[in-house]
């Protein structure tokens, strides 16, 4: 780890617009600094800022510094959010990691984290070894010739499914961005991962009220039961009346370069009966546009099976 200056602003005004790197839980930043993947000269500890609180009144508002474990345990949090948080990392990390930091965490691509290898995210223009190298964990959706790294966050998948927004504060004031629009596909510029401007920070996560999202779940498939990132995941919420699906929200993780909303799956589910045949038909369109690599072609059928599993789990008492 290289030397850096550490300060701790006590007001949002003092932090906003800073040229430093923000530190909350530090569960990603400190790791990457130890590996010299990130080498900030100035680090700002923002834990003293008034960015906490969970309000589950009309919709859901979560302060950016709220810890993952506290959000997961809150009774007003939709099940898919709570489950996605509970299946993330380890209990110790969930006790430390903030929701804002989780949404901004960097990819777990081994080439990104190894400074001895090229990586377009870390060094633009250097190349993407994963295209021809070890790519079992990499994305099949939303990829480009410059990057195939998967997005790491579990809870971002659930939040994108629920049309969540992030409130941002910077030198130019405050603004609100839909989380789905906040993340950027890699294209030719994979080093630019989101719409965050210099000196800007997330202050709050806002989830619109959706009463039927109480009927939701998050299913995560991984190589081991704990402390492992998703090979594939599915966030699903269903509104069901008279054994028919009135509305649906569906997104996937572990298979794409950003949290991947699945509108075609949602459209296929709407108006259909709650049956296995309906679920299999909807899941069959989930992999449209996928571009498998040499080692991750299994993710396309895995995505379909994961969606069917989530839908069956969610409708166990409705079939």
TrEMBL record:
<dbReference type="InterPro" id="IPR005107">
    <property type="entry name" value="CO_DH_flav_C"/>
</dbReference>
<dbReference type="Pfam" id="PF00941">
    <property type="entry name" value="FAD_binding_5"/>
</dbReference>
<dbReference type="InterPro" id="IPR016169">
    <property type="entry name" value="FAD-bd_PCMH_sub2"/>
</dbReference>
<dbReference type="InterPro" id="IPR051312">
    <property type="entry name" value="Diverse_Substr_Oxidored"/>
</dbReference>
<keyword id="KW-0560">Oxidoreductase</keyword>
<dbReference type="InterPro" id="IPR036683">
    <property type="entry name" value="CO_DH_flav_C_dom_sf"/>
</dbReference>
<dbReference type="Pfam" id="PF03450">
    <property type="entry name" value="CO_deh_flav_C"/>
</dbReference>
<dbReference type="InterPro" id="IPR016166">
    <property type="entry name" value="FAD-bd_PCMH"/>
</dbReference>
<dbReference type="InterPro" id="IPR002346">
    <property type="entry name" value="Mopterin_DH_FAD-bd"/>
</dbReference>
<protein>
    <submittedName>
        <fullName>Xanthine dehydrogenase YagS FAD-binding subunit</fullName>
        <ecNumber>1.17.1.4</ecNumber>
    </submittedName>
</protein>
<dbReference type="InterPro" id="IPR016167">
    <property type="entry name" value="FAD-bd_PCMH_sub1"/>
</dbReference>
<feature type="domain" description="FAD-binding PCMH-type">
    <location>
        <begin position="1"/>
        <end position="212"/>
    </location>
</feature>
<dbReference type="InterPro" id="IPR036318">
    <property type="entry name" value="FAD-bd_PCMH-like_sf"/>
</dbReference>
<dbReference type="GO" id="GO:0004854">
    <property type="term" value="F:xanthine dehydrogenase activity"/>
</dbReference>
């Amino acid at each position: 780890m290289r030397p850096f200056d550490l300060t701790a602003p006590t007001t949002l005004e003092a932090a906003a617009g800073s040229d430093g790197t923000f530190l909350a839980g530090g569960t990603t930043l400190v790791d990457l600094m130890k590996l010299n993947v990130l080498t900030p000269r100035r680090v700002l500890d923002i834990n003293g800022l008034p960015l906490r609180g969970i309000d589950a009144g009309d919709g859901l508002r979560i302060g950016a510094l709220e810890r993952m474990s506290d959000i997961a345990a809150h009774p007003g949090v939709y099940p898919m959010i709570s489950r996605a948080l509970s299946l993330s990392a380890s209990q110790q990390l969930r006790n430390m990691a903030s929701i804002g930091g989780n949404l901004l965490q960097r990819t777990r691509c081994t080439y990104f984290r190894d400074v001895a290898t090229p990586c377009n995210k870390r060094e633009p223009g250097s190349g993407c070894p994963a295209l021809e190298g070890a790519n079992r964990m990499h994305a099949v959706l939303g990829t480009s010739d410059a990057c195939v790294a998967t997005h790491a966050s579990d809870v971002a998948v659930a939040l994108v499914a629920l049309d969540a927004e992030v409130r941002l504060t910077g030198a130019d004031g405050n603004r609100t961005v839909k989380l789905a629009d906040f993340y950027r596909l890699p294209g030719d510029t994979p080093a630019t991962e989101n719409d965050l401007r210099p000196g800007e920070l997330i202050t709050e996560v806002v989830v619109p009220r959706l009463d039927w999202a109480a009927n939701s779940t998050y299913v995560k498939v991984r190589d081991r039961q704990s402390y492992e990132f998703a090979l594939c995941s599915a966030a699903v919420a269903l509104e069901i009346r008279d054994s028919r699906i009135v509305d649906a929200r569906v997104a996937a993780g572990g298979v794409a370069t950003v949290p991947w909303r699945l509108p075609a799956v949602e459209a296929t589910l709407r108006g259909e009966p709650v049956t296995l045949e309906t679920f299999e038909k909807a899941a069959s369109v989930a992999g449209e546009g996928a571009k498998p690599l040499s080692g991750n072609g299994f993710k396309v059928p895995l995505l379909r099976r994961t969606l069917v599993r989530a839908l069956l789990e969610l409708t166990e008492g409705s079939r």
